[in-house]
């Protein structure tokens, strides 16, 4: 038989078969091939493997489950016998991250693998919490926890979107408490896995559906309490970023008061329980009716007080004498107006008389100074042809044409020359002074 080395550097078991030992003419048997495979597998021994429990079915005291790679999509099935199960922690369940000691079994008759668990322990919770804290710090630094970016919850939503487990207590609590507070409340519920490997993708799909519905005013993501392992899906980065990017306000109602997945920080409102979410999203109709009644009573009291105050002011104004008998004010003012108008007329008359006297005096002065008055007394003014007034006899020698102006008109004359002073006096008009 040809001897060959395995990948681990070990010699295959005797009676094994290699590719060189078979050909078209000399094929090997199925049982010999399966025996060869089992011989190699038995060399592996027990292997410690880390993963997340995604299936845990208890049948006849034995467990048949499945582990999923925490960093990929690879899975493996395992079986855990009841004798081993009694030695393991009693709180193992779907969603737990564990390390398991598995031994590979290969059945020669069927040609199938089987992984049998000989030990299983919780592992990595501290590491997971550390990763969650790093993610929490990263999202906080990006502003996803900032209260300024959180959307307000509507006072009375028309339709509430609810993402929760099917037939879960969380769904019943939300519906029951919301309907007790406001009987006409409407829900659109989408069921999704609330733990395990289906939690994140199903919750994301439900969130996208409800966020795209224009009738949905607010979305509640709810589930009951659980250990940190079962709540890990609500700290998934994909889900958290989808919640932050949603246009509809989102309420986180995960677990109990002490549970605190990162979804609580990213959501627009955190409710400590599903019941608390119903109370925060849906107003209490009895409280609102009482509030309306209280506001009506306060408005009625305020209005009554204001009307009474205005009536009292009006009565106070009407009781004043001037408003009780308005003619009294007019009568008293009429005498004052008559006195002032009489005084005004007297002042105007005196001013006019004084002005008339002054005008007469100025008129008399003007008349006295006027050349016309002098001419009226018999004097005349002689002008040479060019309009020059003759003031000296030498200006009008004999033969000079003159224009003589008297009180009543003018006439032409011709000078006979100068006369003696005595003759001029005797020839003066008799009316002259």
Short description:
The chain is of the alpha/beta class and 433 residues long.
Characterise the protein shown here.
By secondary structure, the chain is an alpha/beta fold. Among the domains are: 45-123, Nucleic acid-binding proteins (OB fold (Dihydrolipoamide Acetyltransferase, E2P)), CATH 2.40.50.140; 127-283, Rossmann fold (3-Layer(aba) Sandwich), CATH 3.40.50.2300; 372-418, no CATH class. The chain has helices at 30-44, 82-85, 125-141, 169-181, 199-211, 237-245, 263-266, 274-281, 285-318, 321-324, 326-369, 371-376, 421-426; strands at 46-59, 62-68, 75-80, 97-107, 112-122, 159-164, 186-191, 216-223, 250-254, 269-270, 381-384, 401-406, 409-414. The strands form 3 sheets. It has a 5-stranded antiparallel β-sheet with strand order 3-2-1-4-5. A 5-stranded parallel β-sheet has the order 7-6-8-9-10, sandwiched between helices. A 3-stranded antiparallel β-sheet has the order 11-12-13, with no helix packed on it. Strand 2 and strand 3 (75-80) form a beta hairpin. Helix 4 packs parallel to helix 8 (274-281) and helix 5 packs parallel to helix 6 (237-245). The longest helix has 44 residues, at 326-369. Mean pLDDT is 85; it is low at 1-11.
């Amino acid at each position: 038989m040809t001897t060959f080395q395995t990948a681990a550097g070990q010699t295959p078991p005797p009676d094994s078969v290699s590719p060189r030992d078979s050909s078209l003419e000399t094929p090997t048997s199925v049982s010999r091939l399966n025996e060869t495979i089992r011989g190699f597998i038995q060399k592996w021994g027990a292997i410690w493997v880390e993963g997340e429990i995604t299936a845990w079915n208890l049948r006849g005291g034995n467990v048949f489950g499945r582990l999923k790679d925490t960093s990929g999509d690879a899975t493996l099935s395992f079986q855990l016998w009841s004798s081993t199960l009694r030695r393991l922690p009693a709180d193992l369940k779907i969603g737990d991250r564990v390390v398991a000691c598995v031994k590979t079994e290969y059945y020669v008759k069927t040609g199938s693998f089987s992984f049998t668990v000989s030990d299983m322990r919780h592992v990595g919770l501290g590491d997971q919490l550390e990763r969650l804290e790093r993610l929490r710090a990263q999202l906080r630094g990006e502003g996803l926890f900032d209260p300024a970016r959180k959307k307000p919850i509507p006072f009375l939503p028309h339709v509430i979107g609810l993402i929760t487990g099917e037939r879960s207590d969380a769904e019943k609590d939300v519906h029951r408490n919301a309907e007790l507070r406001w009987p006409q409340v409407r829900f659109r519920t989408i069921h999704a896995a609330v733990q395990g490997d289906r939690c994140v993708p199903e919750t994301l799909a439900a969130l996208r559906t409800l966020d795209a519905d224009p009738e949905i005013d607010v979305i509640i993501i709810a589930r009951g309490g659980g250990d940190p392992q079962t709540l890990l899906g609500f700290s998934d980065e994909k889900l958290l970023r989808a919640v932050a990017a949603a246009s509809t306000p989102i309420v986180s109602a995960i677990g109990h008061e002490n549970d605190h997945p990162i979804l609580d920080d990213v959501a627009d409102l955190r409710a400590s329980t599903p019941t608390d979410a119903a109370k925060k999203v849906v107003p209490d109709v009895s409280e609102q009716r009482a509030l309306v009644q209280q506001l009506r009573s306060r408005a009625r009291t305020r209005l009554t007080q204001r009307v009474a105050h205005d009536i009292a002011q009006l009565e106070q104004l009407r009781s004043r004498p001037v408003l009780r008998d308005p003619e009294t004010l007019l009568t008293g003012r009429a005498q004052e107006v008559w006195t002032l108008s009489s005084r005004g007329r007297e002042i105007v008359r005196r001013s006019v008389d004084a002005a008339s006297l002054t005008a007469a005096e100025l008129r008399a002065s003007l008349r006295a100074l006027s050349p016309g008055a002098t001419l009226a007394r018999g004097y005349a003014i002689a002008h040479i042809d060019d309009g020059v007034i003759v003031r000296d006899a030498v200006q009008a020698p004999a033969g000079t044409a003159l224009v003589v102006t008297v009180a009543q008109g003018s006439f032409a004359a011709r000078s006979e020359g100068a006369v003696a002073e005595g003759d001029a006096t005797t020839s003066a008009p008799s009316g002259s002074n």
